[in-house]
Amino acid sequence: MKLRSIKNVSVKNKKVLMRVDYNVPLDGAKILDDRRILDSLPTINYLLKNGAGQITLISHLGRPVSPAGKPEGKTNPKYSLQPIANYLEKKLKLPTSKVTLLENLRFDLREEKNDLEFAQELAAQADIYINDAFSVSHRAHASVTAITKYLPSYAGFALQKEVEMLSLLLEKAQRPFVLIVGGAKISDKIQAIENLSQLADVVLVGGAIANNFLKAEGFNVYKSYLEEAGKNKDFVKFADNLLDENQQEHSLINGWPLPKIIYPIDVLAADATDAKSALTINLLHQSTNQPINRSTCFFDIGPQTIKLFEKVISQAATIFWNGPMGLLENPIFAQGTKKIAQAITQSKAESVIGGGDTIAALEKFKIDQKKFTYVSAAGGAALEFLSGKMLPGIKPLLS
Length: 399
What we know:
By secondary structure, the chain is α/β, with parallel strands linked by helices. The protein has helices at 35-49, 82-90, 116-123, 157-171, 190-199, 210-216, 235-245, 303-314, 335-346, 356-364, 380-386; strands at residues 16-19, 26-27, 30-31, 55-58, 99-101, 128-131, 153-155, 177-181, 202-205, 229-230, 233-234, 250-253, 256-259, 261-262, 266-270, 279-282, 287-288, 297-301, 318-322, 350-354, 374-376.
């Protein structure tokens, strides 16, 4: 996938409108995670170095709503980008005479409606448009798609890097390619799982998502979280179909065959999320170290599953991991995620990590993110891209 790069156009004395994603967590005026802000700097600095005129940055922050929970289309101090503007000026020392950050795009209802008039108003401020916000490129919003109708449009460096790394998984993954998927909601990841499972050699399933596969295979999941159905989709049946489709496929790891899709063979369970101790359930033999009652919930992968997953990971050449293996809020149920993260860092594989919960886990365990080949904070956009979709914000940038 080849994108139009800003390196292929002269920016000297040009007025530039640049879409960034500064939708970062705030505590009052304090920025809690500046990763997305820092990701935009290579493009901004390139523009400054190459003589660009005025650089106007545009972003959203959160989803400003009325007390009734509906978008209201007016200024709300809680969602102001002023703290980020201050950060850019003072902490990063960007010249305010050359770089301007506009207020939250979502203070105008026309943004999310992909309104052409709003896009024209934005475009009137610039000569060229740069999208450097891959994480919003799955949204058909005015500042992402409609804007490209009115200005020559190019990809920024952060967006290019994201597309390059995710395309690697879809087109050039070295074998064995291991997909690791966890988290709570299978509905968020169903299309990516479906697409990537066709490309991967082995799929390791953990987190609450694994409960769909366990139930499909006839295991009792008791009161464990289970997202059984959504709009026009039965998620347990999806898991069952995926298992059926891949039941004949096996991969050789250390000389022994493995099924393509591997779900937990044991789990850590308890009656409540704040439990002080865990029940270990061997799913293959239905044996436990304590009695099971009806209120039991599965909260993490068990020790035998960890060993199995670690062995598979150690043999991988390419790894994509999205979603924790257990309930991170309780240390008792966080070990599965920690062990998987450590196993990936110790492997020789090209490793791509995605999703906010996954990144939060790395931070929680103080695992150096530089030990992974690439860490994506793009969330939903990355999953849609990996599902094989052409994102509406990417299509106008194709060369």
